[in-house]
Amino acid sequence: MPQIWWILGGIVVVVAVGFASRRLGQTAATRSAVFEEVRRTLRDGRTEREGGVTVVRGSLGPLGVSVDIQGDPKRPKQSPMWRVVAEGPVALERPIEARVGGWEGWIDPWLQLGQTLTVLNGSGPGFTLHAERPPRPDHPLVEALRRQGERLGPGAVHARNDLLRVETRFGARLEENRPLFAYLHVIGEIAGLPQVRLPRPAGPTSPRYGVLPEG
């Protein structure tokens, strides 16, 4: 009788290992397929390896874009996640951050001290906007997110006049990564906005939220 239990235990282990291997294989195949589609989406897209990490680089309009996958041990439910960084001129006067579908964590933690606007999104997930001043319902980021509708998924977008950043969940199945491309469309829309001429400050810059510089 004990021998039977050993045999049954061995079968369970083999099945578990087989399932895990198949899932790892599926995850790797999904990752490769999505990276390739991102490369084709970006202008002059190319895939690079940096320290064992795959990064896709290219451009959307005037912005240089990089896309990779990262994990955050403080947010295990949202890891691993896609991270998009777009650098260059952005037609926005002040920093703003959108958190879509109840996304946890902040790209710019300072903005949680700012003003909040809750936006309903029809058939898509709702989101909140956070900025130093009360966000406008007609802000370009609101309009860009709304146009993506149900293609959006939980994630965050941070925008300022020289940078756009995105976080959204990586999924083991191809269809679970559709929100990444919705966010890339959002970046493309913001990148295509006409540039605004920012006023030159008349005096010393005030510290954000009253925090005084050291020294």
Secondary structure elements and pairings:
Elements: H1 2-41, E1 43-50, E2 53-60, E3 63-70, E4 81-87, E5 96-100, E6 115-119, E7 127-131, H2 140-148, E8 155-160, E9 163-169, H3 178-191
Antiparallel strand pairs: 1-2, 2-3, 3-4, 4-9, 5-7, 5-8, 6-7, 8-9
Core attributes:
3 helices, alpha+beta, nine-stranded antiparallel beta sheet, 215 residues, single chain
In a nutshell, what does this entry contain?
By secondary structure, the protein is α+β, with helices and mostly antiparallel strands. The chain has helices at residues 2-41, 140-148, 178-191, and strands spanning 43-50, 53-60, 63-70, 81-87, 96-100, 115-119, 127-131, 155-160, 163-169.
Order of H and E elements:
HEEEEEEEHEEH
Number of domains: 1
Low-confidence stretches: 12-21, 197-215
Beta-strand content estimate: 25-35%
The secondary-structure class comes to alpha+beta
Q: Gyration radius, to the nearest Å?
A: 21 Å
Q: If strands are numbered along the chain, what order do they take across the biggest sheet?
A: 1-2-3-4-9-8-5-7-6
